[in-house]
Automatic annotation (TrEMBL), chain A:
Protein name (record): Thiolase domain-containing protein
Keyword Electron transport in annotation: no
Protein origin, superkingdom: Archaea
InterPro entries xrefs: Thiolase, Thiolase-like, Thiolase_C_2, Thiolase_N
Keywords: Isoprene biosynthesis
Domain Thiolase N-terminal positions: 6-222
Limits of the Thiolase C-terminal domain: 240-385
One Pfam match: Thiolase_N
TrEMBL record, chain B:
Domain ChsH2 C-terminal OB-fold: 47-106
InterPro entries: ChsH2_C, NA-bd_OB-fold, Thioester_dehydratase-like
Protein known as: OB-fold domain-containing protein
Domain of life from the UniProt record: Archaea
SUPFAM superfamilies the UniProt entry points to: Nucleic acid-binding proteins (SSF50249)
Pfam family, one: OB_ChsH2_C
Length: 388, 124
């Protein structure tokens, strides 16, 4: 099996950029990744691209070839849709193609344009990641779905809104120095607690923002990197995917996300590691409670213990397991179809040592990214490792 | 398969003929289905829905999509009715009155924003 190296990474700044088209956003990220990798245009054999709501936001389907063209490439291209996990799935498919020996050089990533729509239309567009008949028609919104999970978690394990507020405080603090982040300002527990309700018990500061942005990665085989003398010190050591029932009402429990557990177990097994080997994690904190569910699904904390991890300083930048040093979706922003790729971009930089928050880590070897689709009806986890 | 069987299920929910789908293993599900989502069985029979359900989790929604924009804040809940769970709007209750374990009945009402029938729970 061919080993997969990350040869180059690229991002746009995340934030409100309603005047910029999707093709402009992805082109910026892709060109940055290509320049970082130093791989010739002609070498690219394909694009795996994630996007969720482009057909609604830009009236643009069939975005794969459009984005290959925008990236300056002449190669086959496929769009992957898995709600908020679209880019993570795109990367996974690229990794599998290189590992299978079918390709040596691929571009992967994603893009979402969201702020050109009014908030109610974005809310409606995001809701299509839920079950239309049994959830959306019953008044469930996406924050509402995570609110249902948060209340169930509180009932089963305890925890409070204040515990969740500490997660927002942590991730905002991490975003301050990150030039790609949407909200580069610290917030306080009091501010978070006093923010208006969105879907109780979740308030505004428990929710990630509406964001435009793009992410891109140049993935190459180990053989190609060696043959072309590429500086590619980070390898994709493990990849895993999990699935669950579409509607919350059909799940075994609301306080756990078994799709993410399955994805993590597969990725750990693939990489030959366990959760105790993880030095740093980027998890899908679309809502503060989602970070809790992610930490527990990844096996980084026992069930019932993830809720207090930020408050106790265990996942802060000076804790024993820093989580979301990028700022996370919460503060860095969540352009849905770009997010999973952006997590891997941030993690690769953290492991390379050229991330603005790299100084929070001491000789990191292994990082994990967790990208969830919908209310975690789908999940993809990647293990990144500093190559020997 | 169309949404017709869903529409028929919603119509029945507001009557004495409320039902769910049951497979030979006793798993419950809601239409439209060709297979049991729990075991894959294809023999699904209509079984009377219990009259009483229990709220398992709930939220008061303050930011809604266009189909509910005129109703905020409103309560949405997931309630178990024996072998199945339903998601619906909780009417005739305020957030302070609700807690998990609340006994509710299931029915339908008109969504004032769209005119469509919506699943509603009411405290029993």
């Amino acid at each position: 099996m061919n080993d997969v190296r990350i040869a180059g990474v690229g991002l746009t700044p995340f934030g409100r950029q309603p005047e910029r088209t999707g093709r402009d956003l992805f082109a910026e990220a892709a060109l940055a990744a290509r320049e970082d990798a130093g791989v010739a245009r002609e070498a690219f054999e394909g694009l795996h691209y994630g996007n969720f709501m482009g057909a609604l936001a830009e009236r643009q389907g069939h975005q794969g070839p459009l984005m290959a063209e925008a990236a300056g490439l002449d190669c086959p291209a496929t769009r992957h849709e898995s709600a908020c996990a679209s880019a993570g799935m795109a990367v996974r498919h690229a990794v599998q193609a290189i590992r299978a020996g079918e390709h040596d050089v691929l571009l992967a990533g994603g893009m979402e344009r969201m702020t050109n729509l009014p908030t109610t239309e974005v809310t409606e567009s995001l809701a299509i990641a839920a079950d239309e008949l049994f959830e959306v028609r019953a008044g469930m919104t996406f924050p509402g779905a995570y609110a249902l999970m948060a209340r169930a978690y509180f009932e089963e394990y305890g925890g409070s809104r204040e515990d969740l507020a500490h997660i927002a405080v942590k991730n905002h603090a991490n975003a301050v120095p990150n030039e790609f982040a949407q909200y580069r300002r610290e917030v306080t527990v009091e501010e978070a607690m006093d923010s208006p309700p969105v879907a109780t018990p979740l308030h505004l500061f428990d929710a990630c923002p509406i964001t435009d942005g793009a992410s891109a990665l140049v993935l190459v085989s180990d053989d190609y990197a060696e043959a072309h003398g590429l500086d590619a010190p980070v390898r994709v050591a493990g990849s895993g995917q999990g699935g669950d029932k579409m509607a919350l009402q059909d799940r075994e429990a609301f306080s756990r996300t078994p799709a993410a557990t399955a994805a993590a177990e597969a990725a750990y097994d693939d990489a030959g590691i366990g959760p105790g080997d993880v030095d740093v994690a980027e998890v899908h904190d679309c809502f503060t409670i989602a970070e809790v569910l992610a930490l527990e699904s990844l096996g980084l904390f026992d069930h019932g213990e993830g809720i207090s991890a930020a408050r106790e300083g265990r996942t802060t930048r000076d804790g024993d397991l820093p989580v979301n040093l990028s700022g996370g979706l919460k503060a860095k922003g969540h352009p849905v179809g770009a997010t999973g790729g952006a997590q891997i971009v941030e993690m690769a930089k953290l492991l390379r040592g050229d991330h603005v928050n790299s100084d929070a880590l001491s000789d990191p070897r292994i990082g994990v990214t967790h990208n969830a689709g919908g209310t975690v009806a789908s999940a993809v986890v990647h293990v990144l490792e500093v190559a020997e | 398969m169309t949404d017709q069987s869903y529409d028929e299920w919603v119509a029945a929910l507001g009557t004495d003929d409320a039902f769910y789908l049951e497979c030979p293993e006793g798993h419950g599900s809601l239409p439209p289905r060709r297979t049991c989502p729990h075991c894959g069985a294809t023999e699904l029979s209509e079984t009377p829905l219990p009259e009483a359900g229990t709220v398992e989790t709930y939220t008061e929604v303050h930011v809604a999509g266009p189909d509910f924009a005129g109703q905020t804040p409103y309560l949405t809940a997931i309630a178990s009715f024996g072998a199945v769970r339903l998601t619906g709007v909780l009417r005739d209750a305020s957030e302070g009155d609700v807690e998990t374990g609340l006994s509710v009945s299931a029915g339908t009402a008109e969504n004032p924003d769209t005119g469509d029938a919506v699943v509603v729970f009411r405290p029993r």
